[in-house]
Write a structure and sequence with these properties.
The protein is mainly α. The chain has a single domain, classed as Orthogonal Bundle (Tetracycline Repressor, domain 2), CATH 1.10.357.10. The chain contains six helices and no strands.
């Protein structure tokens, strides 16, 4: 496996580990173990934990933007917000499914979502049809 392929594997593993434990609750050892490499090799690919985290965040942002672009392609402008919201909801549901398949403790955490747990809730489709535009600014004091 090339260094670039390993780097890709590290980013995918980091997304899963950071989703499970957050930044402070995730060790580079856990990421390395998930990928099947040593910590020293991990640090040959990335200068540190923050760089791994930022690569994972960038990947997630790219996926969200790609989802929005695909959802709004060929859609009337007045319908774009709704279709992007529904596509985002599907993305979250798909990611939630992957996380639950990967780790039983994540599945238990997602199950508590409706009972005061800290699971991620998808956007309410009924709230997606509001008015477009920026929020009004508060006057400066």
């Amino acid at each position: 496996m090339s260094a670039e392929e390993r780097r890709e594997s590290v980013v995918r593993a980091a997304i899963a580990e950071f989703a499970r434990g957050g930044y402070h609750g995730t060790s580079t050892e856990a990421i390395a173990r998930r990928v099947g490499v040593s910590q020293p090799y991990l640090f040959r690919l990335f200068p540190g934990k923050q760089a791994i985290f930022l690569a994972a965040v960038e990947r997630c942002q790219q996926e969200i933007l790609r989802t929005f672009r695909e959802a709004s392609e060929g859609v009337a402008p007045e319908d774009a917000k709704r279709t992007m919201g529904l596509a985002y909801e599907d993305l979250i549901a798909r990611d939630r499914g992957h996380a639950a398949d990967a780790a039983p403790d994540v599945r238990r955490g997602l199950g508590r979502r409706g009972r005061g747990g800290r699971g991620v809730r998808p956007p309410d489709p009924g709230r997606l049809g509001g008015t477009a535009g920026p929020r009004p600014r508060r006057p400066r004091r």
